Amino acid sequence: MDLGLADRTYLVTGGSSGVGLATVRALLDEGANVATCGRDADRLKSIGTHERLFTAPCDVRDAAAVREFTGAAAHAFGGVDGLVNNAGQSRMKRFDETTEDDWRDELELKFAGVLNPLHAARPHLRASTAASVVNVNAVLAKQPEPRLITTSAARAGILNLSASLARELAPDAIRVNSVCLGLVDTGQWTRRHAAAGSGLPYEEWQAELAADRGVALGRLGRAEEVAYAILALLSPRASYITGTSIDVCGGVGRGIL
Ligand SMILES: NC(=O)c1ccc[n+]([C@@H]2O[C@H](COP(=O)([O-])OP(=O)(O)OC[C@H]3O[C@@H](n4cnc5c(N)ncnc54)[C@H](OP(=O)(O)O)[C@@H]3O)[C@@H](O)[C@H]2O)c1
Description:
This protein is of the alpha/beta class and about 260 residues long. About 45% of the residues lie in helices and about 15% in strands. It has two domains: about 10-180 and about 220-245, 3-Layer(aba) Sandwich (Rossmann fold); about 185-220, no CATH class. Helix 4 links the parallel strand 4 (about 80-85) and strand 5 (about 130-140). Helix 3 runs parallel beside helix 4 and helix 4 runs parallel beside helix 5 (about 150-170). It is globular, with a radius of gyration of 18 Å. It binds NADP nicotinamide-adenine-dinucleotide phosphate.
């Protein structure tokens, strides 16, 4: 099936690694123009070059920098049809380990990571004939984990915000949806494996992790498996889907939503 993404333009925040990078590659494969950002210019360069790819270093918490990035991307490609709010990371802390700064930083990252790109892209999305926003979220939003207390709370807020935005932006025909991830094999987990110092090879460590967290499919997900869900929601073919979320979690979600 042709997803209808070719020649359209998509902004993907945090495209230098993991889910963002897989999404950038999948969109390029579909013939779309892609603009992506990350904080580290060298990591962005490691994506390589492509005639339909625009990259620029930008921290999503910095509203002015996000406006500049978005304006440059829209200028390069003649508009913006979709936005994937993906940049971010989680914070492994329990309540008693969490400082005031942790709370502030986590909430800032999660909310600014959606609001800054959306404010910047909104005029361009209004002008698109197939505007779509996808917020990359986590099943933690619906199934909190005490060891990730700030991230769980922030994720719940973002899922709630996504539902409000879907209604607020519907009159402009801008669709807003989420993907809620479980455990996906990306830089986040290779960093944690290194920090854990378990001595187990990465594959074995992952299998133990999946078993410990009750992942029904018994393994971590691959970034490409998330990218397919994101592309499906970005696609003009999903023109009647807004205000919802897709769990991409191998069956770790225990709710019926
Ligand atoms: N992997 C999982 O198991 C999992 C589970 C649930 C939710 N998620 C969420 O899925 C998203 C992608 O995660 P991932 O696992 O693919 O992570 P990743 O491999 O660590 O990649 C994160 C990307 O975001 C960028 N980034 C981080 N902070 C940024 C900021 N303030 N401004 C701009 N770019 C920033 C990083 O580049 P720089 O570091 O150079 O900025 C990188 O490109 C995140 O929002 C994460 O919280 C992941």
